[in-house]
Amino acid sequence: YLPDLTVNEAEYQGLLLGFGLLSTLDRGRRIICGDSNLVIRQMRGEIECKAPGLTPLRRRALDRLKTWPAHEFLHVKRDWDQSTDRLANAALHQQEGTTVTSEADHDDLVVLNRLQELLFQKDEGSVARMAAAARSRTRSKNSAEVLQLDV
């Protein structure tokens, strides 16, 4: 918890903190998820970073990314990662960092985190195949045209 940060500065600080936690792991592919559309799009290079408070934070984050050449950024809406929102709100309410100590709280956070639904490919068995038949009001001599659509 850092009281003098803007929301976007806090998002970048969280990103840098996450990079610090990953620093001891192998340098494989990374998918970085975040609910800040601004930060994700700036890190992807889709929009400029003009705010004086954000520019050095973005530069630091880009420098850290050089150690993970295989990476991508995924913007997720907050309802897909409610566990993060829950921790952030607790930290803001207490005006200090929050540590999860009980197993029940940990289990709640795992249940609220739905990111795996976005990140893991579903098996082929879960793909729905649909067919639709279309014909005009008056019957023609030709059989109905069938459209195939993979969903």
UniProtKB/TrEMBL annotation:
Ranges where the RNase H type-1 domain occurs: 5-91
GO molecular function: nucleic acid binding; RNA-DNA hybrid ribonuclease activity
InterPro entries attached to this UniProt entry: RNaseH-like_sf, RNaseH_domain, RNaseH_sf
Domain of life: Eukaryota
Protein name (database record): RNase H type-1 domain-containing protein
Origin species: Phytophthora nicotianae P1569
